[in-house]
Amino acid sequence: MSAHQFTHAIVLAAGLGKRMRPLTDHMPKPMIAVAGRTLIDRALDQLQPLGLTRVVVNTSYLADQLEAHVAKRHDPPVIFSREAAPLETGGGIANALNLLGDSPFISMNSDTICVDGAGASALSRMMATWDATRMDVLMLLHPTDKAIGYPGAGDFVRADDGRIRRRGSDATAPYVFTGIQIINPVLFKDSPQGAFSMNVLYDRLRSPDGYFSRIHTLVHEGDWLHVGDPQGLSDAETYYANATTAA
Questions:
Q1: Which residues are registered as beta bridge partners of 182?
Q2: pLDDT digits (tens, 9 = 90+) for 173-225
Q3: What is the mean pLDDT of the chain?
Q4: How far apart are CA 112 and CA 188, in angstroms?
Q5: Cβ atoms of residues 107 and 10 within 8 Å
Q6: What does residue 165 show for φ and ψ, rounded to 5 degrees?
Q7: What is the pLDDT of residues 77-123, one digit of tens each?
Q8: What spatial distance separates the first Cα and last Cα of the chain, rounded to whole Å?
Q9: Dihedral-angle region of residue 86 (phi above 0 means left; psi in -120 to 50 means alpha; beta otherwise)
Q10: What count of other Cβ atoms lies within 10 Å of the Cβ of residue 65?
């Protein structure tokens, strides 16, 4: 079990939300509501029980609107990292490193919803699994064929020891990245300036056999919803409507 005490997290919320237009013409994507609760609040709700001392939310597109909404809540404690223009996943985190401290931290996308299963929460499982001697990244994956609102072919093939390789030329891959990960800030040493994808940093860890060294994974045991476009939003609303009916 991990001896590390996690204190910081970042929620990535600075994107333009182009695939969600026209809903995002006048509101930032994290402000879109699913079953009556905004995406940004659903992300922060997941972090709330962890007792974190700081959650960074990066903002850019219609930042005033998003920041005013988040400022209404007091738990978890939030600080904003505003970007003049969206810096993508890697650039957004790199820009906020001075707010995240020197220890490993949790990173979450704001356009996905992770619904926990019957056991421990996904974040609790991840924190317990974290081992800084073996990993610089711990990703939460979800079975591609069970993902809700996700039309893609999957991201990764997973070995028994938790290491992963990209789908590559395969038609499909068994697992999709949920957008939730634990990151050691040493990963950002000598990182690019400006906007860049986290894939740039992941690729530095790729071994000759295609698997990534120091990137490990857990498989999510609950449900996972990808709210990336209007169809994904519709699928998420249907999911919650069915869950309410079943209850």
A1: 106, 138
A2: 999 999 999 999 999 999 999 999 999 999 999 999 999 999 999 999 999 99
A3: 93
A4: 24
A5: yes
A6: -135, 160
A7: 999 999 999 999 999 999 999 999 999 999 999 999 999 988 889 99
A8: 34
A9: beta
A10: 15
User: What's the CA gap between 106 and 13, in Å, rounded?
Assistant: 14
Domains and CATH numbers, the chain: 8-246 (3.90.550.10)
Residue 78 identity:
V
Q: Of 30, 65, 5, nearest to 179 (Cα)? A: 30
Answer for the pair 31, 39: CB distance below 8 angstroms, yes or no: yes
Contacts of 231 (CB under 8 A, 6+ apart): 149, 151
Cα 168 to Cα 171, 203, 207, 215, 217: the distances in Å are 8, 13, 14, 17, 18
How many angstroms separate the CA atoms of 195 and 91, rounded? 5
Q: What is the pLDDT of residues 14-42, one digit of tens each?
A: 999 899 898 899 999 999 999 999 999 99
Question: Distance between CA 163 and CA 186 in Å, rounded?
Answer: 19
Rounded CA separation 216/214 (Å): 6
Per-residue DSSP letters for the chain? -------EEEEE-----GGGTTGGGSS-GGG-EETTEEHHHHHHHHHGGG--SEEEEEE-TTHHHHHHHHTT--SS-EEEEE-SS--HHHHHHHHHHHHH-SS-EEEEESSEEEE--SSS-HHHHHHHH--TTT-SEEEEEEEGGG-BS--S--SEEE-TTS-EEE-TTSS--SEEEEEEEEE-GGGGTTPPSSS--HHHHHHTTB-TTSBBTTEEEEE--SEEEE--SHHHHHHHHHHHHHHHHH-
